[in-house]
Here is the input.
Amino acid sequence: MVPQFKNFAFCCVCFFLVGCEQPQPADLILVNASIYTVDDQNPWAEALAIRAGDIVGVGTNADVLAKFEGPQRDLDGKMVLPGFHDSHSHLIYGGLQMSQCDLSELGSPAAILAAIEVCDQSLDPSDWLVGGGWDLSLFVDANPSKTLLDQVNPDRRTFLRAADGHSAWVSSAALRYAGIESETPDPADGIIERDSGSQPSGVLRESAMLLVENVLPAIDATVRERAARQAIALAHQNGITSVIDAAATTADAETYEALAASDVLNMRVVLAMSVIAPFFDPAPVESIEPEHRQTQKLVRRQSAKIFVDGVLEGETAALIAPYFSDKGGHGMLITPAEELQSKVIRLDAMGVQLMFHAIGDFGVRVALDAIEAAQTSNGDQDLRHHISHLQLIDPVDRPRFKALNVAANVQALWALPDSYIMDVNLPAVGPDRVQAMYPIGSLDAVETAIVGGSDWPVSSMNPLLAIETALTRQDPTGVIAGVLNEQETVSLATMIAAYTKNGAHLMHQEQLTGQLQVGKRADLVVLSDNLFTLAPHEISEVSVVATYFEGRQVFPYES
Ligand SMILES: [Zn+2]
Here is the structure.
């Protein structure tokens, strides 16, 4: 009788405390962590249990260990966040650049030319020298001459994309091969830079790049897949588990889909198909599959990328007031505003989510006008259109983001006084406009949904660099002095939400990821330190300890 009575008593106690349940099996239990869930109802936890790729428990150590048993990982106070969402990346394009002549991160024309020489020497005489990543701001007027390339090798056909992807530097042999000469007219929406005698001088901007790009040797599927795998490994190293590929070609889409089919993608990829841009290989509109929004498919061709304007550096970004330089124009729209509007109305009616590139204040206004016209015509279908870059926004346009349900896709790592802004943009647009650049704080103040993107390989993929810059408006590496528009700083919570919850909402996958809650997939990142305990300038020194995708550790990779 006595033992039975004891069991009865124990069971009553346990019924009131934990519902009398036996611990359930878990594949992994993270304990002793500083878990920031990005769930307002329950923002902090110590432990998290994972089973079959799902989060099955989140709470205190005692709570979770009472309910689950299985292998434990003691995180000793380290921070756990939902996996980062990079809402603007070019994984395959960047992966290809890594395997070509990579000129990124080089700080002088001499260093760039030395690197080109090394690439040249590794090639056969008949090969093209293809590469990119060079810094436009290192050259006068962002306009290097073909002569510099000809001095390396007068016979080499050379094509080198600038870091921002909107200009290319080419050799005389490449110009000859593509048939570009003094009589060649500038293509629509493109510029062939010329010397005083109207000869092409070696830089092609916007759609003019295609004159050479279209005659480059084709890239085969194996090379593309290797590039994708390399870039995905780099993303995992940076804690990234979801990405928007911000201008995907059909070949890119097929590469991601092949990796997903072999179960080695380990990444959620939303493709903004490059449908009407003059850049990349335009994909047919029919290749977009809007019905895949909110599904569990890892690769979803649910969006289209639309380039509204160019960039300030080549004076191709569209401005309300003119540039101050001798050219004195207002920049350019890639597609005339009325034509853009009818395309946007048509795509929106098909249920296609739209991702706009807009840098100048007029470009941003034209994008917002087009979205407004689509909503007037089709109603708000919750497609979650977004505008990326947003270097200049007229103050009257800022509240329109919330009103039109448009997310601001910001590249916060650009919001510092670097040589692009201080040496190239400042003379071109003047101090008043420089002091209004990248108005992230102002957008936040009018309750805009902010998401974060690296635009890799244009700049580093590391979200912690961008998060720190958004909080300080200073160079996180400490090389460049000064602050860019201190009044535009935002909070750490805002930036973490941008890279997690808001990114998941933007990608139409908020049911699956973006917050650490029971029922969501276990996409998460472990950081060496709790970001909330650090001074803002320390954030970028934090390291990624581990990245999990659907409960599997994908960084450090364990084979
Ligand atoms: Zn981009």
